[in-house]
What does this fold into?
Amino acid sequence: MNVHLRIGDNRTFSLKQAVLLYQEGSRAFATLHEVKHRPEEAPYLCAGQSVTTGFLETLAKGLGASMGTEVLPERVLARTPELIAWWSRAQPRLMFFGDGNAEAKKLNGKMYPHPPLVFMIHARELFVRALAENCRPAADTRLRNAPYWNTDAHGLVCLGSMRVPEEVSVASLSGWENAYFASEFTHPSGAVRLTTHPGGFLGLWSSFPGRKHRFPVEFLADSKQTLQEFVSRRGEG
It folds into this structure.
């Protein structure tokens, strides 16, 4: 059997160990086996031993799933090796719109009030939801759809040519957030209700350009998700 592996540089890997997974219903356990090689013959597995926590930690680091120790600020809502979620208070922000729509072009490059938001990064994909209240959400807080183009029903952002940070860490959160608003909002992303405003998306944002008051959260559409569901499902709906 030939195995071809492309990892981006020149390295030679050899088979050293194998993990066998045993499962019955919802219960499972794994054993670790040394691999012995023989000239002109197929390799074989030695007797197994129980998989230890130390081995799993080493394996996770080798697969790039390690995470350094970080002090989490108040705005971080959830953190795992694969995911980080945080919230941002309501504030004025510049918005940029693509020139593919004449009405949207009129809104380009102006300052607008924005609702409080929840951001999440999972597998280097960016998700965003909105909040009805300008305070740190709890696990059971119901989230709203982010009222922005380029963002689908699951909150997934179409990154396109967006220049996002290379790393995913507490220190990079502002960079991800700034990259989102430094990009152009160009088009609806799938079947998603972005707002309950009677004028739709363009009606919402054209109703208060330059306005210094709060974002009208009464026009935020329900995402039908709590914060717990949002981070647990990782954008899977």
Notes: The two ends are 39 Å apart (CA to CA).
